[in-house]
């Protein structure tokens, strides 16, 4: 399949669309794009009209720029997809009567027809070929802040077109700012006349001949401009009057006269009318009456009333301030729009651009208050609303409970020790938060008489696995304890908490105050207050970084492990290897054995407990702490145990394997191997010293086999 | 017009266009008016085809949307007054300028709500829920981390839910449908 196979081979999810206008838009646009790429023919309508560019799209059809190949002239072509060929034929017949109507304020229609295939798409369409206007619709024109008098003049001209059409029996059905164009000669032209109805799937659009008609589906006009009776299924020339009056009102006031689209209320009109000069307000209120019978008898009457109400030249249509308001939802856009004098997305003034319903709309819902244009110097980078709080902090704000489990200890007394915690998180500045951590019990004392607690601030950040991570440097102490010498007293814990939804996991280290070496390391598991969590602990379920911190000897080795292994979400840390220079072996492994080797070994529950954890295969890294040769050596150790005795085989990096014996110390649980001067503490990982403390040991359990 | 291309190239281009071009169109239609949306879709697809022909692309879908995003940001920057920056992590298409005729039915309230999100959140949401890209593909297309994509999606969903007063599942479904109907 060539170089496209990589992208075509996986099946893309289907892109269904039930909207024939969208299907038509897609088909035509694809045809435009393909023509120069592969030498395909441009899309043609009935072999005569070559579609060049889509200028706009409305609810019921597309408007394209096209070339009339017969007359070699550029035209605008509206395509309206319809239900079937019969409907298309009826609509085409009607549109042909529109083509006979000629008025200076109505766009000229050249041709009408129907087609069954457009750009390779089998679809029934009616097409209307019109003058290609160069100019801007009223929406765009209004962005240039025309004077209210100019607005009136333009609407009166458009109104003339409407009135003439009504007198010939035509109804527009979708009058609004986008459907009035001022061309490059300054002429006002109403567009999209009588075409909005075709989208409603009616058998015969009879409204064109002046009779009120019943719509078989919902109104196809534009909400906000649709007269109330249209929602009830009736459309006549007075519906156009309503839409016209709303348009004029909006362009004068800078906002729609009604708070909510489609729902007119006398109170809304009263409020809006207060901003206009009284005679004008009364005229528009009447034209916008909910009951069509209360409106003017005809468009012509409305125009006469408007002309009678015209303020004298130089006066203003507004009741109070006379200040022109631009119908924008936000001052920022107005500021941007006024820079350079054109709207942000407008074509230039001579662009051949007009469309029915898709021109940039200034007003966006809700339109409850007029806004004034801000100066062009307004800070455009300012957000329209207050900046949001840190989402990570928001996600973890609240109370959480968690349990700790010791995975390694310098002293076997802490084997499997549990701690019980509550943390309350409150937001701080930006992505910092305040953490109130309370340790309220442990394995040996499930409920403390006086809790250990601390309050710290810390940064909150997302981790590579998508969780939210925080590292807390805690001094857990009883509230009754006070700081000494300006330093915080208490037990030094370093906890890294990782939130995923309502669950927490993490790791911790208890740091010995004098040596700063970790004495305990372990894992944390928890959940939001009141929610259950599984207190089972395993390194495999820890975060990748947590695995590194628990299993690696020293911060340097842990940092290297995190950097190398924990880049991707879901990563698992490998074996850590030898200790780095920053590692201090646990002090217990630097001490001699508590009992002479030839004494009968004592058996205690503690040493038995440790010995039971040790059988299996181990990788042990030994690294000198001083001297020139500092390279680490890797050994493999296979251990078995009985009571507190150990035996097994030790394979050095080179040379033959040797048998070894050893035991677990009865008091502190340190395990020693005879003949090697090795002392280690822990059951996975294990750390220690060799050669009388001149070398460090780091050991990880290996998988069986 | 090129006439010396192999016929299978033309057929493949046509098939590719049929699959991808409507998606590009709806991506741009939700942000930019006619005819600019068509121009941007055409520029994106042309660039994509050019790259596809000249070199192997690991993740063609991610690459396509990355090009689309880049074209959109270039377009916005071109339209901004000189010296004014567009911060797509904070500013929305609604703040830049409206491009859709804002009807007042439910579907367009959703479209309006999408356009009022900071652009990066809107893009992440549309690519994930409208175009069904995997999270990693969205991250690649937008050239951000996976964690950042998740944060964008979370923020977008919360904002849409409060704007539209609907459940999370309903918002996802309705907003994706509104996007697909562009």
- The radius of gyration computed from the alpha-carbon positions of chain B, rounded to a whole number of angstroms, is 17 Å
Q: Which bin fits the share of residues in helices of chain A?
A: 10-25%
The CATH level-2 architecture of the largest domain in chain A is identified as Orthogonal Bundle
What is the H/E string of chain B? HHHHHHHHH
The helix content of chain B is: over 70%
Q: CATH superfamily name of the largest domain in chain A?
A: Transferase(Phosphotransferase) domain 1
Topology:
The complex is a heterodimer of chains A (705) and B (182).
Chain A: H1 5-8, H2 20-38, E1 44-45, E2 49-57, E3 62-68, E4 73-81, H3 85-99, E5 109-118, E6 121-130, E7 135-137, H4 138-142, H5 148-167, E8 180-183, E9 188-190, E10 213-214, H6 228-231, E11 234-235, H7 237-253, H8 266-273, H9 278-287, H10 299-309, H11 331-338, H12 391-396, E12 398-409, E13 418-427, E14 432-442, E15 452-459, E16 461-462, E17 468-476, E18 491-500, E19 503-511, E20 518-528, H13 544-551, H14 555-565, H15 605-613, E21 616-624, E22 633-642, E23 645-651, E24 658-664, E25 671-673, E26 678-681, E27 686-690, E28 695-701
Chain B: H1 7-29, H2 36-54, H3 60-79, H4 93-96, H5 106-115, H6 119-130, H7 135-142, H8 146-164, H9 168-180
Report a brief summary of the structure.
The complex is a heterodimer of chains A (705) and B (182). Chain A is α+β, with helices and mostly antiparallel strands and 705 residues long.
Can you walk me through this structure?
The complex is a heterodimer of chains A (705) and B (182). In chain A, helix 5 runs antiparallel to helix 7. Chain A folds into 4 domains: 115 residues, Phosphorylase Kinase, domain 1 (2-Layer Sandwich), CATH 3.30.200.20; 245 residues, Orthogonal Bundle (Transferase(Phosphotransferase), domain 1); 167 residues, Lipocalin; 115 residues, Lipocalin (Beta Barrel), CATH 2.40.128. Chain A has 15 helices and 28 strands. Chain A is 22% helix and 28% strand. With 705 residues, chain A is of the alpha+beta class. Chain B is mainly α. Chain B starts with 6 loop residues before the first helix and ends with a helix. The chains are: A alpha+beta (705), B mainly alpha (182). The interface between A and B is large, with 78 and 73 residues.
